[in-house]
Amino acid sequence: MRNISAQAITDAVARLCIEANTRLPQDVQTALDKARQEEPWPLAKNTLDLLWSNLSAAREKDLPICQDTGMACVFIELGQDAHINGDLTDAELRRQLEDFADHGIYGVVLHPRMGLAARIKYLGSTYFHYIRTAVETAAALDMKIVLYDEGMYPSGSACGLVVKDHPELASEGLALVETVLHGDEVLAETANGTLVVRKSGGTMRGLHWGEDDGEKNAPKTADILNPAAVNRFMELTHEAYYRELKEYFGTTIIGFFTDEPSILGRNVSGMFPWTHGFAEIFRRAGGNAANLTALFDGKENDDTRLYHKLLLQRESEVYYGSLSRWCEAHGIGLMGHPHQSDDIEVEKYFAVPGQDLVLRWLAPEKDGLAGMDSTMAKCSADAARLMGRRRNANECFGACNKDDNPWQLSGGDIKWYTDWLAVRGVNLFIPHAFYYSICGKRKDERPPDVGPHSIWWAHYKAWSTYWRRLSWLMTDIDLHAEVAVLCRNRDLCPDTVRPLFERQIGFQYIPESYFPACTVEDGALCLHGHRYAAVLGDKALFPDAAHPEVSALEPDCRCDPPQPMLRCASFNKEGRACWLLVNEGNTLIRTQLTLPVDAPLCRYDLWNSQPCACPAEHTAKGACLPLELPARGSLLLFTCTGAEYAELPTPCAAYKLPCPKFEFVCCDPVSAQKTYKAQLTVTQAQLAKRHLQLTVSAEEMAELTVNGKSAGVAFWSPQTFEPDNLLQAGENELVLTVTGNMANLHGKHHVPYGLK
Predict the structure, then answer these.
(1) Which residues are paired to 599 by β-bridges?
(2) Do 392 and 467 belong to one domain?
(3) At what angle do helices 238-245 and 322-329 cross, to 10 degrees?
(4) Are 222 and 204 in contact (CB under 8 A)?
(5) Sign of the C-alpha dihedral, residues 348, 349, 350, 353?
(6) Cα separation of 676 and 664, whole Å?
């Protein structure tokens, strides 16, 4: 199905109507000029001259050639595979949700976005009319709904309504200044300047055009450290949603999504978070405000450490705690994610701890183990395990563009991101975003769309099925983690855990608030019934625990030769030992793998859903087997009984068919598709082979038909197809359709596509 913007049609019709009334086709102009030059009758020639004069005036001044133009009637012909979208309507909402369900999607977050029609006021009657339409439709489809608690983001301000009539509730910050302004609260006079508390001036992204970052009407953010502001926020949003939709709470509606709440708001620099009354809290805890000037120098002292500790407590209790308690009292859960990728301490307030992976912080062509963002998946997954939560989520794929080309997200990138998250323990994937429309400026708001406006929508069920497999696999597991990594909020030690990832050593983050519950027994750190044989972190915190070097730790699997780009999640599920293996590199991994087990093994391809027996040599060190894992490859190995092993198909090497010479047929720039044809001669002896494969190298998505029947679709290069049952002895007709990147349809720059 091809989606066509209603605005695009409006713009095209308007342009054509203007052109039709102000411009004549060149052949008509030529004929008119010729007639004017050759006309002998003066009256007729004068009339033709007047027409020519009107034509020139129309062209120069954009006026109708004739004032009596009448009314244009425009008829648009659409094919069966075309659909118009644009302004928000009940019918379109229902159609899209039904379409989502057909593509294997079982739940959505209702996210009001920038570009909402001006007629729809946030939290107004028209707004809730459409929200109810979506919820009722989801209920009929047995889909789940997560409500979004804001009009864009960051959460906590009700799209500026909290502050609109109560300016005293606006976000505040601590500033080091030379000049004190009217309204400033002076905390301390220091040698480096005056510490004052003032309104931060922070803003958020609004819902309507003209309300975005840096724009005049961007809504002011509320002080989410102030209980009065948070209470007003919940009254305006949560209570309003409950009044309108309470019959769906706890059934169709399962949660509220809070999105990266920011204490200061956006577009603020040179300030640190503060709030009314915090100075007294800081003083009573023994703090000296004058020493907080170190914050502005990037230095640390006892008072800055106390400041951060008290700030986290305040944010946790006032904002996250309030929202969490409200949700629990109303039969749903708090969902979403905190402000930063390593905000682990506040995850305890979430029914489903979460994070978000955006902006190509991590990418296949970059280092997936560097910086704070490399910790986000473990942050949410480990927080969920500590709290006994079944699920943890990631808002993934949003704004994952590259090369200054916002729509440049490939299927191969999505596969890499998905596996990167899953092997770290994420078990609920929330793709961002399925835009209702990409009309006009909406196309450039926060691309790409990974839903119905994407190149792979017709084949989306392959993706949704893969995510469901991974979600099931990583839920209700007993993670093998013998190493405890001590950490603090916003300090998840990426450099410390890098060698653990590279050596396939499982670990568990233990944040500071859990330290008091830890005990040490026989050198092991004990928490919530689990024993950690080794501890990484400040030895002074638990001096009696074992603190070995990373090189001395036992890996979850051994690789010969070592494979630093191989990630391994070792866990037990339903009584079976499991290893999820992911290649995060861009080249083939080839190694000898040893697993600490003597039971038979099953090998399972998670993408193609193909199990087979996994022959291994059982030694004193465990089960030894060769491993080949291509770039973006993932593989599940798990133990089985002897009887189960005997029932599994035996692995067989693929018989690679010779790739024929494909001839270019045509290019359709409107759909960014190139078509190729080839003839493939297959012998009877080749047909007798098992596991026939045909591999092509193309950019980006490739679909293959063999003798008029589909042999499937492949989303990344090299594209491999298995046409076993479609081939016949003799000549076979192959048609290959290669669809370009989404950037070819919507981006700033052309991206090469087609056969390599």
Answers:
(1) none
(2) yes
(3) 10
(4) no
(5) negative
(6) 5
Domain hosting residue 137, numbered range:
87-164+221-265+312-473
Please tell me the predicted confidence (pLDDT) of residue 81: 55
Q: Cα–Cα distances in Å, from 252 out to 143, 248, 391, 449, 714? A: 7, 5, 18, 25, 35
d(CA 168, CA 173): 13
Which 3 state secondary structure label does DSSP give 663? strand
Q: What distance in Å separates the CA atoms of residue 577 and residue 568, rounded to the nearest whole number? A: 13
CB neighbourhood size of 676 (10 A): 22
> Has residue 307 been placed in a domain?
no
pLDDT in tens, 641-671: 999 999 999 988 889 999 999 999 999 998 9
First to last CA, the chain: 27
36, 49 contact by CB (below 8 A): yes
The DSSP output letter for 122 is: T
Q: Which residue has the tokens 């009407």?
A: 217
Does one domain contain both 744 and 706? yes
pLDDT digits over 508-517, tens only?
A: 999 999 999 9
Place of tokens 């038979």: 600
Q: Is residue 566 assigned to a domain?
A: yes
In this structure, the number of other CB atoms found within 10 A of the CB of residue 680 comes to 21
- What does the pLDDT average to over 415-430? 97
Distance CA 431, CA 425 (A): 17
How far is it, in rounded angstroms, from Cα 217 to Cα 383? 38
In a domain, 275, yes or no: no
How big is the CA angle at 344 (ends 342 and 346), to the nearest 5 degrees? Answer: 125
List all residues 6 or more positions away from 655 whose beta carbon is below 8 Å from its beta carbon. Answer: 686, 689, 690, 691, 692, 693
Strand partners, 524: 521
User: Strands 673-682 and 730-739: what pairing?
Assistant: antiparallel
Sheet with 692-696: strands ordered across: 655-656, 692-696, 719-721
Total number of residues shown for the chain? 756
SS3 143: coil
